Amino acid sequence: MRHAVFLAVMILLAGCGQGFAPTATTPNSTSTSTSMPTSTESDLGPTQTQTATVIDIIDGDTMDVRLSDGSIETVRLLGVDTPETSITQVSPEEWEGVKDTTDGRDWLVEWSKDATRYAQNRLAGQTVLIQSDPEADRRGYYGRLLVYIFQSRHAEISFNERLLLNGYARYYDSSFSQQKGYQATEMTARDETAGVWDYTSRTIATTTTSTSTSISTTTEDGSGDIIIESIHADAKGNDNENLNGEYVSFKNTGDEAVNLTGWTVSDEAIHEYAFPAGFKLRPGESMTLYTGDGTDTDNELYWREDGAVWNNAGDTVTVKNDSGDTVDTYTY
């Protein structure tokens, strides 16, 4: 009888040990903490989001941020790649249609500067949301956090994708969940010869006139320096009864005045506004376009629509120059 009791106890102990071991030793456990990172562990978990303040723009796809716990991290934007900042480091072979010549390399360096300036105008000093991806590594080369950046909680697309859409970056082949979408966005930008993908037009222009200058975000008329600064889509009360309660603001971030004659602003539906002839926006200044009626000034314009334009649930603001080229877009 004592032998039987002893044998039963041994079997029970063996069973308990076998059941406990996997949770203690399995290295591939997918259990993750839902708490925000601490100052000693700021890696984001799969699809984890937290607020951060952008304190320095290194280049178009890399920046330093201060996390909510006070720690500082360098982040690298997932899925996109802006041109390198040095003529010896740019790789024209990575940019379809850009020739591996001195001219082609100069073109990419120019766009590297434009991408950096675009990020500075949009993100520097701003509080943003950074988000990891469940299929991407937490950190990349040099220990940088790999993230998406969203400019607000209501933003429908990330700043990463905005770089692609406006031709400041190419799709960067790596493991992340948005691969197909980002590939499609790059193809859209290429089809529209947005930004860096407009190299063919530049080549034609430089062969037809000796005074032609590079076509970059900062063009001869300063068109690339006009950005959509903000939008207030949800007017107080009934939007259709408070038309000037919804408005869009623009800013000239360049060093020269920009003549907006022939430029347009449109939404995703059928609304389109044309800037009045001779209207100029001075360097460093902002102007506001109101939906309703009013008297135009140097910094305030009125669409004079009979009803609300901007969709409170989400919309896209598109600015095009007098040639019909998209200068900036803003999706909310």
Automatic annotation (TrEMBL):
Q: Which GO terms describe its molecular function?
A: endonuclease activity; hydrolase activity; nucleic acid binding
Where does the record place Low complexity bias?
A: 25-42
Per its UniProt record, what SMART domains does this chain match?
Answer: SNc
Gene3D superfamilies for the chain: 2.40.50.90, Lamin Tail domain (2.60.40.1260)
Q: Which Pfam families match?
A: LTD (PF00932), SNase (PF00565)
- Tell me the SUPFAM superfamilies matching this sequence: Lamin A/C globular tail domain, Staphylococcal nuclease
What are the protein's UniProt keywords?
Answer: Endonuclease, Hydrolase, Nuclease
Is ATP-binding one of the keywords?
A: no
Which top-level group of life is the source organism from? Archaea
InterPro entries in the record, alphabetically? Lamin_tail_dom, Lamin_tail_dom_sf, SNase_OB-fold_sf, Staphylococal_nuclease_OB-fold, Thermonucl_AS
Q: Where is this region: Disordered?
A: 25-49
Query: Where is each TNase-like domain found?
Result: 48-199
Protein's UniProt keywords contain Nuclease: yes
Please list the residue ranges annotated as the LTD domain. 209-332
Recorded protein name is Micrococcal nuclease
Q: Organism classification, top ranks?
A: Archaea, Methanobacteriati, Methanobacteriota, Stenosarchaea group, Halobacteria
